[in-house]
Specification:
Layout: E1 23-28, E2 35-39, E3 45-46, H1 61-73, H2 77-84, H3 88-104, E4 115-117, E5 119-122, H4 139-145, E6 158-162, E7 172-175, H5 181-191, E8 197-200, E9 212-215, H6 221-224, H7 238-251, H8 259-274, H9 280-287
Parallel strand pairs: 4-8, 8-9
Antiparallel strand pairs: 1-2, 2-3, 5-6, 6-7
Bound molecules: zinc ion.
């Protein structure tokens, strides 16, 4: 993947859309070494980063490729900053733009599978930047003690997922505010076919889904033991546990993403888990500037 992938339909003038074949090679940018074009029709000046989130930056193409790869792999901004020699603030700013793109292009369609699982995990957030008011009660410990179904408001926002549809191998991941019946029914109805059998745990939030429902029981202790009295389950579904492990591992380097930004991290994570390889189509949409 190179920065040429940013324009799969071919580079064109951002002002009048004339093809790059109707432009003169104008000069090369000093730091990034990119060819700068001047449109013969309208005299606009542009380069490969035009109309992308990298427009106006002086990154070398190799830095851009490594930055994109790092964001998709869940590498922390601090580490990318060290590796690429770009300030952490700049990395974070680009990351936020890529996350916004990812959220904007997240698939809305139902999974095509005849069997779909749906489950929730809860991500502790809100520790970062919040002062510890009571030294004897640090937020992290308090957060870990809180069991059962978290909410966005209490800084344990739920992430609802449909792990790897049994035939399609596709996944949907969404941050929601709570795991009540209204929220979970909406998620299930959007992301599964009306004819699908939906596998869930025993949580009552799924009691009203208009689907054939099968209750599966998780072996993972953390999720099986629940303050809401669902009990300790014995039977199993491996796929969901694998998905949540991947999501937790993806989020871990960020050490407490603020809940305000969590949906963006989840969107990137969803794409990476769904794509067998990072496609040109995905990259071109991800880097597309919202202003164009
Ligand atoms: Zn032009």
């Amino acid at each position: 993947m190179g920065v040429e992938s940013f324009h799969p339909q071919g580079l064109c003038c951002p002002n009048c859309q004339a093809s790059v074949s109707e432009a003169r090679n104008f000069r090369k940018t000093a730091t990034s070494g990119l060819q700068v074009y001047r449109c013969k029709r309208c005299a606009s000046v542009y380069n490969l980063y035009s109309q992308t989130v990298f427009a106006g930056t002086q990154f070398r193409p190799s830095q851009v490729v490594l930055l994109l790869r790092g964001v998709c792999q869940g590498v922390s901004s601090a580490q990318l900053s060290r590796e690429l020699g770009i300030s952490r603030q700049t990395i974070l700013s680009i990351r936020r733009k890529l996350q916004s793109s990812a959220e904007r292009i997240q698939p809305e369609a139902a999974l095509p599978d005849a069997a779909v699982e749906t489950d929730e995990m809860f991500q502790n957030t809100g520790e970062k930047g919040d002062p510890h008011r009571d030294a004897s009660d640090p937020p992290r410990r308090r957060g870990n003690k809180r069991r059962g179904h978290g909410t966005y408001e209490n800084d344990r926002p739920p992430i609802v997922g449909n792990p790897k549809g049994r035939e399609s191998g596709l996944l949907r991941l969404r941050l929601v505010h709570q795991t009540d019946a209204e929220t979970l029914s909406a998620h299930v109805h959007q992301f599964s076919l009306p004819t699908a059998t939906v596998y869930t745990d025993g949580w009552r939030g799924y009691n009203h889904i208009q689907r054939t429902r099968e209750i599966v029981l998780h072996t993972d202790g953390e999720w099986a033991t629940d303050a809401d009295g669902e009990g300790l389950y014995e039977i199993h579904t491996n796929t969901i546990e694998g998905v949540w492990t991947t999501v937790r591992n993806f989020l871990r380097p960020f050490r407490g993403v603020h809940k305000k930004f969590l949906a963006g991290y989840i969107a990137i994570c969803e794409f990476v888990m769904n794509l067998k390889s990072v496609s040109v189509d995905f990259i071109s949409k991800l880097v597309k500037s919202t202003y164009s």
